[in-house]
Amino acid sequence: VQLQACGGGLVQAGGSSRLSCAVSGSFSSINVMGWGRQAPGKQRELVTTMTSGSTTNYADFVKGRFTISRDNAKNVVNLQMNSLKPDDTAVYYCYLRVGASKIYWGQGTQVTVSS
Questions:
Q1: Which of 2, 34, 47, 81 has its CA 20 to 30 A from that of 90?
Q2: Span 91-101, pLDDT tens digits
Q3: Which residues pair with 37 in a beta bridge?
């Protein structure tokens, strides 16, 4: 399984950015895709997930600002980020979980929010 993320870059506070991740390989169609992030000096944290049945979950710190979506036919997961804050600066990783314990992470893409 491989996860390839794209998007991100430098954006001003209050602006928007969109990330996309293509997931390839062999895995169950029943799964959870999502995004995590890791800021410098901090642990990786889960930002949002979406099941193959379209149930979503968001961390409190992004609720109302970030929106996850996915295309099950193409195995793509997207993250629309609005009202970005400098605290959102981090490397963002796309995520796939199959079952309870098979977890895969992408290579990460940098998002930098300037104040």
A1: 2
A2: 999 999 999 88
A3: 45, 92
